[in-house]
Amino acid sequence: MSSSIQFVRNATFVLHYAGTSILVDPLFAEKGRYPGFPGTVNSELSNPLVDMPINPESLLDGIDAVVVSHLHPDHWDEVAVQLIPKDLKIYAQNEEDAEIIRSQGFTHVVAMKEENDINRIKLQKTYCQHGTDAAYSIPELAAILGKASGCYFTASGEKSVYYIGDTIWIEEVENNLKKWKPDIVLVNAGKATLLDDRLGAIIMGKEDLLKIHRILPEATIVAIHLETVNHCVLSRRELRQFTEEHGFSDKVRIPEDGEQFSLES
């Protein structure tokens, strides 16, 4: 089977790559199970905003490992904790997250190092900043935003894949793009926004996709983390219109929930 991405919903996807299937950032809850995130826009809405497009149990069939970029509930939720086999290998962003996942009953949890080997795949952990400097200057908010990570996947004979993760545009992201020149760039692009708009967005938005395209005009950009949780204000329609207006719609894929696509296309 050729390498592919099965996009699920929000930031959840399965990377079928170099003969290995890796589940990333599972949010498995049914529509409306959780309250909206307090202190964010549209917090009166319940999350997730949409149903799972795929049965979680069938999605887990054939999964070799799980990567959890951070423990916010839209990336690692209580339904995923219930359904994922407790002996499946879980890669957490750091030892603190790994300990929490172990406390949930998982027996094969490792804290990612800077470089990790998953069968034939090399996984490099990348740094994220899950909000602006102004947001992190508020101790209570900094504690909520916490730490987040991204991942860079490579394997011999495969296209390289950079999952940027929950971050705003920072120098490290720009440097990674210029250094690695990934073929596929997955972007959490929903522009999640706090109530206090002076603090800015806490993940990327449409303008950041244009920055990526200008650095890597031949890369395929995959925009995810859209239309699933209350505080993500960027819609697929608005993003599609933006990419058309700026002349790079042919380089941006905006998958529908449940869509699977080849990395060769």
UniProtKB/TrEMBL annotation:
Pfam family, one: Lactamase_B_2
SMART domains linked to this entry: Lactamase_B (SM00849)
Domain Metallo-beta-lactamase, chain residue ranges per copy: 8-225
Alphabetical UniProt keywords: Hydrolase
Record protein name field: MBL fold metallo-hydrolase
Lineage: Bacteria, Pseudomonadati, Bacteroidota, Flavobacteriia, Flavobacteriales
